[in-house]
Design a protein that fits this description.
- By secondary structure, the protein is an alpha/beta fold.
- It has a domain of about 120 residues.
- Strands 1, 2, 3, 4, 5, 6 and 7 form a 7-stranded mixed beta sheet that branches.
- Strand 6 and strand 7 form a beta hairpin.
- The longest helix is centred in the first third of the chain and has 36 residues.
- It is elongated, with a radius of gyration of 20 Å.
- About 5% of the residues have low confidence.
């Protein structure tokens, strides 16, 4: 009886792990599609910085990502901002919201990171302080909304804030 319970538990665990892997793969695909919809970033000649999160960390090795998109940890973004002449850097955060089983919103938040020089005392002495300002304000409006087709498992882009027309 114990071996049967262990066998069933193992099967359930493996099925759950495979389901999580497929969901992560779908999100990765949607993130790549979302990045490719950002014509404003693709047309700029500058490098565009993005903060790494759980999904974007997997995009580092993806060859379909434009080379002008740089994915860095917050520590590396901080170091890059310190090296800039003005001591500031604009970068983006990408997040997703699962609205329902078949609807996912992907949002970009622009963050301005400014490094102030001086003498600051908070827990310890430091000579730099980071100040961040975020672009997102209320009310909530999705940047990109993807809906899964009823007949097929394909995701369709129905809202695109970065395009002149919604698809």
């Amino acid at each position: 009886m114990k071996s049967v319970c262990l066998f069933i538990t193992a099967l359930l665990f493996l099925g759950f792990k495979n389901n999580l892997d497929s969901q992560k793969h779908e999100l990765k695909t949607l993130y790549i599609t979302a990045l490719n919809q950002r014509n404003d970033l693709l047309s700029s000649s500058n490098e565009n910085y993005f903060e790494i999160n759980e999904i974007t960390s997997e995009l580092l090795s993806d060859s379909s990502i434009d080379t002008r998109f740089k994915f860095l940890s917050f520590t590396d973004l901080y170091k890059t901002a310190r090296k800039e002449k003005q001591g500031s850097l604009k970068y983006h955060r990408i997040n997703h919201s699962s609205i329902s089983i078949d609807t996912i919103d992907i949002n970009f938040t622009e963050v301005s990171l400014r490094i102030k020089k001086g003498i600051f005392l908070k827990k310890k002495l430091s000579f730099h302080r980071a100040e961040a300002t975020y672009s997102k304000m209320l009310p909530y409006k999705p940047d990109l909304r993807f809906v899964k087709g009823k007949e097929s498992d394909d995701w369709k882009l129905i809202i695109n804030k970065f395009s002149n027309n919604s698809e």
